[in-house]
Write a structure and sequence with these properties.
This protein folds into two domains: 13-107 and 218-296, 3-Layer(aba) Sandwich (Rossmann fold), CATH 3.40.50.1000; 120-214, Rossmann fold (3-Layer(aba) Sandwich), CATH 3.40.50. The protein has a seven-stranded parallel sheet with strand order 2-15-14-13-3-4-5. A six-stranded mixed sheet has the order 1-12-9-8-6-7. A two-stranded antiparallel ribbon has the order 10-11. It has helices at 5-8, 57-67, 83-93, 106-117, 132-135, 166-174, 198-207, 220-234, 250-259, 273-279, 281-286; strands at residues 3-4, 26-27, 40-43, 72-77, 103-105, 122-126, 141-142, 151-154, 178-181, 187-190, 193-196, 212-214, 243-247, 263-267, 294-296. Helix 3 (83-93) links the parallel strand 4 and strand 5. The protein has 301 residues and is of the alpha/beta class.
Length: 301
């Protein structure tokens, strides 16, 4: 089952610890410094391998070197898109499919959850037209009004201001509709600016009393699928202590890794770069109840 947001530790809980007692995550210059400890890696996409428009060449080199000696690399994304669509996009950008053993997206996980647990029920899609391929062909009845739905499938904002979604959310909440968030990210950085994602809709729905479930990171469903893909590629299950999670999101990539008891590498130059610059490294990490094992400025080998 997908995880409830409140169970996932995904809310922006910023616990202030005593800074002088904080042990900072080890800083590395390249993935090659720690790669030999692991048999598999989970690589985040947005902010780690690319920015939506183009690939980061040094990050792609790191992926290439990591997978070259027989280690298994899985791309793990909170994109609300189906896996095939994201894979085509990456290929057009120049990413060689041979560099990884699979791609898992939260959009694909959302579809599986709906097909498995909500077949024949009514759903309302809250998201832009661009996301329509994620919901097409589902064995559910799509309705035009949230008050008619059993479930709200949130793939992304449709208004610039998140609070402008309140009328739709209140309708769904009044009839007890559950929200499934197909992209638990709250923000991504695109062309140097923050862009809102469906995770913010989940926050707002919770605030007005609605029930929210996550299809992607940091919930366990997407990791369980990633572990299955790793085992398939490796020919046997890989111990969690031999899997490294890499990403730039403290409340998605790093929180999910901690919940799953995986080692993690935090990319400082992604989503939280400006926050790190404002707060400083020590104050930034002191504000989180979970920590990565290592940190790196940008993913490189």
């Amino acid at each position: 089952m997908p995880v409830r947001r409140t169970e996932a530790g995904a809310r922006a809980v910023r616990r202030r610890t005593v800074v002088k007692r904080l042990t900072l995550p080890g800083r590395i210059g390249g993935l090659g410094e720690i790669a030999e400890r692991f048999a598999a890696g989970l690589f985040d996409l947005w902010g780690t391998l690319y920015d939506g428009d183009g690939l980061f060449p040094q990050a792609v080199k790191a992926l290439e070197h990591f997978s070259d000696p027989g280690r298994v690399a899985i791309l793990l994304s909170n994109s609300p898109q189906r896996e095939e669509r994201v894979a085509r996009r990456l290929h057009r950008l120049g990413l060689d499919p041979a560099l990884h053993a699979g791609l898992v997206t939260s959009g694909e996980m959302a579809r599986r959850i709906l097909e498995r647990d909500w077949s024949g029920r009514r759903f309302f899609h809250l998201g832009p037209k661009f996301d329509r391929p994620t919901v097409e062909g589902l064995p559910l009845e799509e309705v035009d009004q949230p008050r008619e739905a059993d479930l709200l499938l949130a793939t992304g904002p449709v208004h610039e201001r998140i609070e402008d979604h309140l009328p739709v959310l209140r309708e769904g909440c009044r009839v007890g509709a559950v929200m499934l968030v197909a992209n638990p990210d709250r923000w991504v950085i695109h062309r140097g600016r923050k862009v809102a994602c469906a995770g913010l809709l989940g926050d707002l729905y919770e605030e007005i009393g609605g029930t929210v479930m996550l299809a992607g990171k940091p919930g366990p469903t997407i990791y369980q699928e990633a572990f299955r893909r790793i085992a398939s590629a490796a020919g046997a299950a890989v111990a969690k202590r031999k899997i490294l999670a890499i990403g730039d999101g403290m409340e998605t990539d790093i929180a999910g890794a901690r919940a799953g008891r995986l080692a993690s590498l935090f990319v400082e130059g992604g989503l939280h770069a400006s926050q790190l610059g404002r707060e400083g490294v020590r104050n930034f990490f002191a504000g989180w109840p979970w920590q990565p094992d290592w940190r790196i400025e940008r993913l490189r080998w």
